Amino acid sequence: MTTLGAFNRFTDGLNEQDQLMPVLFMGHGSPMNGIEDNEFSQYWKKLAKEIPTPKAVLVISAHWLSKGTRITAMDFPQTIHDFGGFPKELFAVQYNAPGNPELAKETASIIKSVDVEMDHDWGLDHGAWTIIRHMYPEANIPVLQLSIDYTKGPQYHYDLAKELYSLRKKGVLIMGSGNMVHNLRMVAWDKMNEPEYGYDWAKQINSTFKDLISNGQHDKLIKYEQLGKEALLAIPTPEHYWPLMYTLGLKGTKDDVSFFNDKAVGGSLTMTSVRIG
Question: How is domain 4-276 classified at the architecture level of CATH?
């Protein structure tokens, strides 16, 4: 059982530290990755050992859309099973990490462009817990979620992310969770278990996204509609792409960029993930 001792780890204050936390964009893919021991979940475990242990994790997930911006502010967020048609073992998962109301207030206070509402109803959706339970299985690190305002566009989300930069100096791991290429209508379900099966257009645009990220051409990624029909196929709706905007907006001038879990799945999905810093 998670204790308030773990919860109180962050109440000592948001003090700056010498080491700047990295920022991640995580391709989360199927909820089944939350319970499967596969190449994606194995890398999440490996990654947690490679980066500094965070004081807290702040997730911007494709699965929490709201009008306006909200942040989870409860002591212990619930585990949300926001999906259907999966095995009962997946629905049985409870990831009992603490939240941190003080960090929620601090995060809201550093965002000046919009009033951030404290939320006590959401919790951790599968864009968060399916990944973090592999990274931090003891559930002893506070986890919060910041919602995505669905009434705004990519530039807004990119700019809002910049206001969160100071959290990187204070031990907070900020994680965007979505998928660069995410077209469920075109998934080849019969090919889901075929390694690296991707349509030509999916592989092409995924490569373009990676090149633009590597070269720091964020303006073109913000205006993804101008990247051609492949981008429109990859992003038929933007909610899984918006978390990438938060990750890119948090890049510093000296940060290195690398990719991991760079695989296509089911033809029209990619798990390609980004580490900044």
Answer: 3-Layer(aba) Sandwich (3.40)
